[in-house]
Amino acid sequence: MVPAKAFGVRVSQYMVGFGPTLWSRTRGETEYGVKAIPLGGYVRMVGMLPPAPPGTRTGRGFFGRVVADAREASVEEIRPGEEHRAFYHLSTPKKLVVMLGGPVMNLVLAFVLTAAFFAIGITQATPTVASLSRCVPTATGEPCSPAEAPAPAADAGLEPGDRVVAYAGERVTTWQSLLDAIDDAGAAPAPVVVERAGQRVELTVTPVDATRAVVDADGEPLRDAGGQVQTVSGPFLGISPTVARQSLPLNEVPAEVGRMFTATAGAVVTFPAKVWQAAEQAFTDAPRSADGVQSIVGVGRTAVDVAGLDASVLDRVTVMLSLLAALNMALFVFNLIPLLPLDGGHVVNALYEGAKRTAARVRGVRPLPGPADVARTMPVAYVMFVVLLGSTVLLVAADVVDPVKIF
């Protein structure tokens, strides 16, 4: 709306939702309002479709009438003396700015929400020592006996509260980087540098290459389906991490948004198959895929699940931020599909129009070609509308009958 008004186009409506109007107010020449079906919204700009080129014959059949009616309705919106304010009179660059305004806002929101998520951070293990093992665990998970030798970390002099900053010459910034350094160094003696009471202390630790039981948060051994204790092998130090909230590097936001874009683009390419899969899973015994597509109903249910998580407020906020970022990325990518009535369809028409005029200008053709006859693509818009409506109905039904369970 903002660039359209800046370029002189008359914007008659700015509406949230579709269907019957629940509330509206007119400010200047624009009606702002809320409609009954909250599945999106629209900006109504006058003169989206140019009149038929001279000599154009009205097509026969249903789609011929559709094209003719669309042109007539577009022309009727233009007030006498305001023909220059029609959208179709804009230059190609201005049309692109207007039509990309909505998708670009979704992209900006995806960046902002992801940055907020990174700034708040997530609760994760840190390289600060929370506790030390008294001995090297056994493969059966039995508790330590007083006669057993102490675990390597305790034997080397590490203490709870120490923050490991380097191991075997490798800089340590996260718990995972510490685990990687321990695995790389193996069971050989390794220098370890810790921060203790504001001072750096250098120690030497010799890990033990051992097979030990995998335990849960309460220290109880985990067992497989057959009842056998699960084990893990490798160098053992004997330290447990402190769990705390840590911000994520903001310089990694573009890479994360790029990963979201790639994943979303892949989902859009396979969208028809995903919709069919969701419908098939919802109405058969097959479980819904956690990475399947959802309707606005499914997204709403996921948001409710996030709000009800047994987690801290900040943890729930960060999950909600990531969910909203992904939703905005989905809207950005989906709206760029080069078919009407999506924004991408108008972008393609503007580029086609610009290419025709550029080619004519290079060849010295005068006068330059007029606006692209967008009305001829209205049958495609109708087919797309039916496809989108059908997909929406299927996904809403699937999300009511058998919703995706992420958590």
UniProtKB/TrEMBL annotation:
**TM annotation in the entry:** 96-122, 317-337, 380-401
Concerning PANTHER family, the annotation shows:
MEMBRANE METALLOPROTEASE ARASP2, CHLOROPLASTIC-RELATED, REGULATOR OF SIGMA-E PROTEASE RSEP
What range(s) does the Peptidase M50 domain occupy?
3-359
What are the UniProt keywords, alphabetically? Answer: Hydrolase, Membrane, Metalloprotease, Protease, Transmembrane, Transmembrane helix, Zinc
Name this polypeptide is given:
Zinc metalloprotease
| Biological process annotations from GO | proteolysis
Molecular function (GO) terms for this protein are: metalloendopeptidase activity
Q: Which CDD domains match?
A: S2P-M50_PDZ_RseP-like
